[in-house]
Amino acid sequence: MRGRTTQTTEEEGIGGGGVGGNEEERDDDESKTRKISLAMRITNLITYKFGVFWPCSFIIFSFLLLVSSLIFRSRNSVCVSTLDSRSLIGIDGLDSDFGTLGVPWCRSKSGRTVEWTTKDLLKGLEEFVPIYETRPIKNNQYGMGFDHSFGLWFMTRWLKPDLMMESGAFKGHSTWVLRQAMPDTPILSLTPRHPEKYLKKGPAYVDGNCTYFAGKDFVDFGNVDWKSVMKKHGVTDLSRVLIFFDDHQNELKRLKQALKAGFKHLIFEDNYDTGTGDHYSLRQICDQSYIRGGGHSCFQDSDEARIREKRKKFWEKAVDVDELCGPGEAWWGVRGHMRGDFNHTNKAISYKEHFQNSRFVESVLDVYWELPPVAGPSLTHQTRYDPARSVGPVVEDGRFGLFQRLGLSRFDSSVFNGYTQMVYVQISQSSH
């Protein structure tokens, strides 16, 4: 698979300076005299041309101009979006908001990262937009939106696996995305309900080169005889397999199952932030105080509590301290709970266990990379995820020209409202 990795690049900074100087008082006086003299000549000229009443006319004209400006501004204020009004009080809609509350980035064994760059993502967006416009399921409510569809397509096309696999297919949109990335590569789909069942009620996608473990043939990912399945598909190198998880199971469980089977390349669609979601995610696991961007304060009078309280008013996925923290100030997972199976298998865990989970993930993690939002919220008008807990977008706020040139402005804002920190990980057995 083309999943080469590179060492993390060093951060670059840009510094600036100012230039200042003082003029002699004599020069200042002469300058002022020249300005006054010029002003008097202009005044005399206007008086000669228009008479002594020109000052009254000028005042009236200025007054009318001011009134017109106020009317124009008031009319425009009716059309200001909520994101614009939020930016006025300085808490959302600005590029500077991204990551202000911290982004807990899982630490890998060697500090490696992906080889693709922002430039590659921009080039990919340009190619993917017309593809996305042909999607068979236009309204994919409760499924992937544009951001994650692009992420899955981009990473799959870049990694070029010999076999693609998905756990959780819903109506088949993710299957369609995989097929657009790799037209001739076989797909395995594990999903309780076959996508063809949805065809009776509306648009769905069933792939001709896909083996479905669905309906009466459904087998959970952790119970598949992978040796037999891989042999059947002629796969001998498991590093050539890409697995996409969109099944809302405990991601620690899925990680361990994939590791045991020998798989290396995984994508988790719903990598929920701490305090949100219906399953235990890698982001929650790696949200540790010793990691830059990780850890939380449960004190009501803390800076974090005040910021969270404000942001909760504007972002659906923003959570305040009361929602984030449970008994004993338990903030890991969701109020100290490890959720799974669509919120059906909740289990209270101690911070000690949560910490040990983080250490285990670090011991097997080669690469961790969260998909950035496609564009800033002032461009997409999304209201769901909180930018303060996300990495910066591919297309930054304020770059409407680029947003438009890429064709992103053609989409309804609803397609951008499903971002949940999709993550790509590369794993291998711990050397310990």
Gyration radius from CA atoms, angstroms: 28 Å
Instruction: Please identify the top-level CATH class of the domain at 118-288 and 339-427.
Output: Alpha Beta
Beta-strand content bin: 5-15%
Q: Biggest sheet, in brief?
A: 7 strands, mixed
H/E element order: EHHHEHHEHEEHEHEHHHEEHEHHE
In which range does the helix fraction lie? 25-40%
Cα(first) to Cα(last) distance is 26 Å
Q: Please state the second-level CATH architecture of the domain at 118-288 and 339-427.
A: 3-Layer(aba) Sandwich
Superfamily (CATH H level) name of the domain at 118-288 and 339-427: Vaccinia Virus protein VP39
Report the structural category: alpha/beta
Shape: globular
| Overall mean confidence score, pLDDT | 84
The third-level CATH topology of the domain at 118-288 and 339-427 is Rossmann fold
Strand order of the largest sheet: 5-4-3-6-7-11-10
How many beta strands in the DSSP annotation? 11
- Uncertain runs with pLDDT below 50, 5 residues or more? 7-50, 70-93
Number of helices: 14
